[in-house]
Amino acid sequence: MSKKKFVVGCFDTEDTLFPAVKKVRTAGYKIQDVYTPFAVHGLDGALGMRETSLHTAGFIYGITGTTTAISCISWIFTKDWPLDIGGKPHFALPAWIPIMFELTVLFAAVGMVLTFCYICQIAPFVKKHHFHPRATDDLFVMVIECTDKTNTQEAEAFLQSAGAIETKTEIAEEGWWIGRYDRDEVPFGEKIAVA
Amino acid sequence: MASIKEQFVVPGKMKTWAYALIGVGVLSFFIGLFTKGMGTEEEKAIFLGTIMYNTIYWTLICNASMFFLCATTMAWAGWPAAFRRIPEAISVMVPIFGSITLAVLLYVVFTHNHHIYHWTNDAAVAADPVLKGKSGFLNVKFFTIWSLLAVGLWSFFGYRMRQLSSAADDAALGGMTGAEFIRKNTFRAATFLVWFALTVGSTIHWLWTMSLDAHWYSTMYSWYNFASTFVSGMALIALWLIYMKNKGYMEYATDEHLHDVAKFMFAFSIFWTYLWFSQYMLIWYSNQPEETIYFKHRVQGAYKGIFFLNLIINFVCPVIILMKRSSKRNYTLVTFMAVLIVFGHWIDYYQEVMGSISKEHVTLGWFDFGILSFFVGAMIFGVSKALASKPLVPKHHPFLKESIIHHT
Question: Any CB–CB contact under 8 A between A60 and chain B?
């Protein structure tokens, strides 16, 4: 629960956002994140983020599912409780393939969703700070993380020169906390602006 | 547009190769005709069957590229526009290979060759309640009419699609004319697809290959064969795309387009396996003699090796090799996989057709590869000629820009 100072700049089109991201990064500012109303293709590359490893995780979860299925079924049907089903062999691989497939998909899907939630820090009642309410509507909101030496006025002016239609400086919680929006904060109300 | 190479010129080397392959094919046809085609009934059936599965396979995979165009057109997909002249050129082969197919198949049914099609033997059908029940569908008249209609209409609807595509070469298609172009294109694609569903999606495989085992039937069969031909059709498109890129043509088609084509190869390899397995597992599970007869000699008899090779080439290899994103963008790997997939499904067709005609002996040998070389040569010759006959970029196609900026 540490509060930090952020400079927020809002852009109204992708066409101004992309050059702005490039300029801000070359100028040496650290972009905490860009909040967009929809998935913007190529933005992760422009922000210099590395490729996600989520699919590798998914592959490992899938393999785990396959292994679980094959080891469970084969143990049950050949060692623990062998049954004669329609004269089929105890090790009836074709009949197990659908189940192996399903468990692969189930493990991969559920595992990836949980991993994704963990990486993005989203869960029921987990709350994060909104820098601008219109980021969910029609604005591309770029958030710059300030250091002790950052001159916020200079940063805001820089963002405006890069095409931001609205800028502000905020002190905000950078991580997540447990809470409910309806109890302890009005999400779309006025934010405390700090000069 | 000035720097774009719009016109494909067939390299001399390619022509030489095509002629050589066709030459090898024709030569082995004649040698096969004298060594097998004149022999006993059984040898004759093997001779005809070998030509049959080759010609059916190549007709259907060339037709699959027109299916690819029509399906993407119906989905309003813009991305194939940059390289759509390649599937168009491949589909030019449908009437040619289709005629060969018709000639072979009609020769077989009109000579009542019951070693290949058991149901053409009138005496056997009359004495057999199962075949008598099927005779409304499985008879020479219906077979002939339906096969003629199938090949004829694939060719005709394909020709209509290609003809409309040429309209995007000359006149600018902006605003209303562009919308009219898309509307017409969608309509023509839809008519092709309806006919495709009635033939490749169902009946054609019942008539041409499933009826080799006249008593046997499977509801998965047509879909299974459709998947087989579609995935090899995509592999063929990928091969031509890579060839053209390597020769410096098709500048607008990038890694992104190859990635999407390779995704089709990957996805439909799995789809093929899904259908393969669905057919196999249900028959294995219910274990009824009239159904298992199809798999008996394939899984436990002479065809055992080819049967499992088929699964390894067409399922295990694509899944493992094409799974990674980077391998779908790697020209060498995609070329390798495309050749492997085309070959693998050729083997699939081999065991499907020859497994029914020659149950005890695997006949795969020089004759199969000789006939294959004819079709490969003819395909290279015909497709390169078709590519050279038109500009490579449909300059005024309304979706061209969408295709150029396409990324995944």
Answer: no
CATH fold, domain A3-48+124-184, is Alpha-Beta Plaits (3.30.70)
* Domain ranges within chain B, ordered by starting residue: 12-404
Q: Can you tell me the distance from the alpha carbon of A194 to that of A170, in angstroms, rounded to the nearest whole number?
A: 6
Residues of chain B with pLDDT under 70: 1-3
* Rounded-to-integer distance, Cα B198 and Cα B212, Å: 20
Q: What single-letter DSSP state applies at residue A49? A: P
Closest CA to B386 of B122, B79, B141, B165: B165
Instruction: Closest CB to A97: pick one of B277, B287, B407.
Output: B277
**Residues facing A178 on adjacent strands:** A126
Q: Which of B91, B366, B358 is nearest to B229 (CA)?
A: B91
Partner-chain contact B281 A94, CB within 8 Å: yes
A109-163 residue pLDDT tens: 999 999 999 998 888 888 888 888 888 889 999 999 998 888 889 999 999 999 9
Contacts of A104 in chain B (CB under 8 A): none
Q: pTM (2 decimals)?
A: 0.88
The residues in B 281-320 lying below 8 A from A, measured between CB atoms, are: 281, 284-285, 287
Residue B65 has φ and ψ, to the nearest 5°, of -70, -30
- Alpha carbon separation from B383 to B52, B164, B172, B239, B250 (Å, rounded): 22, 19, 27, 12, 15
Q: Which helix (H) or strand (E) holds A100?
A: helix A93-120
**Cβ pair B280:A94 closer than 8 A:** yes
CB-nearest to B407 from A41, A86, A94 is A41
CB contacts of B284 in chain A (<8 Å) are 94
Q: Determine the Cα–Cα distance for residues B121 and B152; give it in Å rounded to an integer.
A: 27
Domain boundaries along the sequence of chain A: 3-48+124-184, 56-120
- Contact B326/A at CB under 8 A: no
The full 3-state SS of A152-174, as one line of letters, equals: HHHHHHHHHHCCCCEEEEEEEEC
| Helix, strand, or coil (residue B358) | coil
